[in-house]
């Protein structure tokens, strides 16, 4: 019980203002690092103010004062218990470059979610392909856009548009930017839909798979198999895997949210999720460039065989990158699987 | 929750943090409206930045507008995502809009948020903004005790209000030279015991804002409060009360509630 609130305030006010000005100095400092003397001073003022807060909370009727002290204590608490990243930690190019090896490592660590994404997409593909193969009526439903339904017409337009395309690198540049941003947005959505416990991610992948299967079968049926491969593979080699990785990130997030709260290592998990997103964004930049600058050029300019070969080479390089770059096994996994398996 | 004191906040939601030293403090959470305004401000800033950049880029790429479009599309996209994530990550949880509206993103343990949390909560925006006008995010905020949108839930962050506070100044009713209520220590004690914290801060607020009230409202509110106190809480002798205006009655009551509580003063 504080009997004389005025006197209590008068006595304590100097240390409150001391704490407030110390905090203002520290918060404005870019590095937010304390030296030893400051730490001691902060610790002492924090302890006193916290005691004052306890006294006010339990022994006085002073809502304003309590709020004021709560704010002070919260600020001091944040300064004392939080270690901000140092400048050298942030501005180290080597740490930034680490990303290129950390991404495939994260991909391999979470490979089972990738497998799940592949399975769901494959299921969609099979369904879409079979539907178009055995039920011509399904074409209208599964392939809403006209150009997807009538490959011949589309290909005609594509090859006719040849000259327009080949002369306008600028159009292609603008087109590539639109593709990149659109694809990253879709992929990001697939990864974020993990919060629906993976249901949204699964639906998105499935739908994607159905469309893919339907288009592939439709074009092959009508004898444009080589054309469509040459048209889609150079960018699809990166685009489709990156959507699958987005699905992987989504399922990873879903699995994380299904865990009990105390079993989650949020810090590591967020790092992992961001690595996957960063990696797939990088892949989609490449895919967008390829789609705009390379895929749109057809037979007389670029032979189909060459385009397919380029696509296959990309796929091979990507596989090598994702499976072989970086440490083969992380230290944590070695501990889990035991030393016998590590060699 | 057994909270011994009232909160004088427009939003009831708050984060309660218990520190390792056994100190408990609360942080008021930001409501959806304030966050919406902050977001609109930030959107305006991003749009202005992108448009400004657009002029520069088009000037540079005057001969090749297609490449200009490419640069601008990519820059707009990157700025849209990175603006909030970078600012929140390196500016202790604040964007320009949040700083102007006194909001801050913090970790849900009460500590500052980390860089990766800033990225996660801002990338999750693509989901929160669905299906339109942040409907999912809004539903999440309204249904969450910590007012978190989905991005906040995943990143383990929340948005607090940080209206600047000064230490409360001395109130005039604690400085009265003479308070007739203290001549009746037993009744004054009864008032102090029976008044709930809500009632006490209601009286305090009414007195503090008396000059902002319209004369009619002021009279009515003071009459109601004084009648309630006199009839339900602590009946001071009629001959004393009759001499006092309702306003003076409340000033005296506040003096008895919040003033020096040592008996010596009462017995004086």
Give a written overview of the molecule.
The complex is a heterodimer of chains A (343) and B (268). Chain A is built from 17 helices and no strands. Chain A has helices spanning 5-28, 36-59, 63-81, 87-90, 93-97, 99-109, 111-134, 138-142, 146-149, 151-160, 162-167, 169-192, 199-221, 225-258, 266-295, 304-324, 331-337. Chain B has 2 domains: 14-18 and 26-161, no CATH class; 172-267, no CATH class. In chain B, the strands form 2 sheets. In chain B, strands 1-2 form a two-stranded antiparallel ribbon. In chain B, strands 3-4 form a two-stranded antiparallel sheet. In chain B, a hairpin with a 5-residue loop joins strand 1 and strand 2 (24-28). Chain B starts with 13 loop residues before the first strand and ends with a helix. Chains A and B meet through helix 1, helix 2, helix 3, helix 12 and helix 15 of A and strand 2, helix 2, helix 4, helix 7 and helix 9 of B.
Sequence-ordered SSE layout with sheet pairings:
The complex is a heterodimer of chains A (343) and B (268).
Chain A (H helix, E strand, L loop, with lengths): L4 H24 L7 H24 L3 H19 L5 H4 L2 H5 L1 H11 L1 H24 L3 H5 L3 H4 L1 H10 L1 H6 L1 H24 L6 H23 L3 H34 L7 H30 L8 H21 L6 H7 L6
Chain B lengths: L13 E5 L5 E5 L3 H29 L4 H26 L5 H5 L2 E5 L7 H9 L1 H4 L6 H9 L6 H6 L1 E5 L23 H10 L2 H12 L6 H19 L4 H4 L4 H13 L4 H5 L1
Antiparallel strand pairs in B: 1-2, 3-4
Helix pairs in contact in B: 1-2, 2-4, 9-12, 10-12
Largest sheet of chain B: 2 strands, antiparallel
Biggest beta sheet summary of chain A: none
- Percent helix of chain B, as a range, is 55-70%
Percentage of β-strand residues of chain B: 5-15%
Which descriptors would you attach to this protein?
heterodimer, A: 343 residues, mainly alpha, 2 domains, 17 helices, 0% strand, elongated, disordered C terminus, B: 268 residues, two-stranded antiparallel sheet, two-stranded antiparallel ribbon, 13 helices, 7% strand, disordered N terminus
